[in-house]
Amino acid sequence: MPPASIESRALGAYLGLALGDALGATVEFMMPREIQAEYGVHSQIRGGGWLHLKPGQVTDDTTMALALGQALLSAGALDATAMAEAFSDWLRAKPVDVGHTVRRGIVHYRNTGHTQMPYSDNDAGNGACMRVLPVALATLEADTAFVRHACQVQAHITHHHALSDAACETVSLMVQASLRGLNDINTLLGMAQKLVALHPEFNFRRRRSDNPSGYIVHTLQTVFQGLFDTESFEQCLIEVVNRGGDADTTGAIAGMIAGAFYGLEGIPGAWLKKLDPRIRAEIERQTPALLMLNLQSAELYPASQDTD
Ligand code: MN
Ligand code: MN
């Protein structure tokens, strides 16, 4: 495979997120053996599922990411209020699906104006990680401390938990490393192992992670198994969504990492053709603009850094 450009890899990541969501949503909340009985191996973008989707239709994972991406672009900076407002507008538009923690966080913002939830042991769901991609694109050139900060600003609007934070950061850094032209999957494996060293809960080699829940630990265990036990974007996503459970979200997160690593060229044309054309157009518009944003640490102190 010829080396993919940054923009191709970034598009691969964003379209990968949407395709993983659309592919996985068909089998969300099913057990692997139920999927097998119904589809054999589920490998087509066919819609349906408990949300009765059209083929190529996406869910909250993708539409929240697009809301976050638009908030970054409109503000031109890392602006928690702009993000919270975007999430609030997103909820008002009656999305097909809303996670419990996401809804609670948005209502908390509406009621208090606070863009950060209090720390809570119940916030370790995957809802912050599923939408983190636009932050990873907009901070590609930033140092790790700023990437971490940016991940937390977006996450804490709804999810405030150390494991969610660690997952958002690791997934973002994996996407960014891939965008820089990585072609050895072992580098990504090392990043996953670093996460496990910090938070042993994430160990993904103890057992096969079937029927993953919305708990970020179960989600990433499934994503990492799919990513490291396959050799293409298509195989990775098929492997992940056929585990069932929160399959649209494991699909979305696997899609962003595998899409960044294998690039647009690695995405099956038949899948891309099925993707909701409005979603695809919005992704194609946001992706280069988010890369151009190039948010850096100075964005934290826009006034005080200005010494001229
Ligand atoms: Mn979803
Ligand atoms: Mn889900």
Spell out the helices and strands N to C.
Answer: HHHHHHHHHHHHHH
CATH architecture of the domain at 6-58 and 126-141 and 162-296: Orthogonal Bundle
Q: Provide the CATH superfamily of the domain at 6-58 and 126-141 and 162-296.
A: ADP-ribosylation/Crystallin J1
SSE-based structural type: mainly alpha
- Which descriptor suits the 3D outline? globular
In total, how many beta strands? 0
Q: Roughly how much helix do the residues carry, as a percent range?
A: 55-70%
Major sheet attributes? none
Q: Report the span from N to C terminus.
A: 48 Å
Rg, Å, rounded: 18 Å
CATH topology of the domain at 6-58 and 126-141 and 162-296: ADP-ribosylglycohydrolase fold
| Discrete helix count | 14
Beta percentage is: under 5%
Q: Would you identify the regions where 5 or more consecutive residues have pLDDT less than 50?
A: 302-308
Please state the average pLDDT score.
95
CATH class of the domain at 6-58 and 126-141 and 162-296: Mainly Alpha
Short description, anyone?
This protein has helices spanning 6-25, 32-39, 60-75, 80-92, 100-112, 133-138, 144-155, 162-179, 185-198, 216-228, 233-241, 247-262, 269-274, 277-293. It is mainly alpha-helical and 308 residues long.
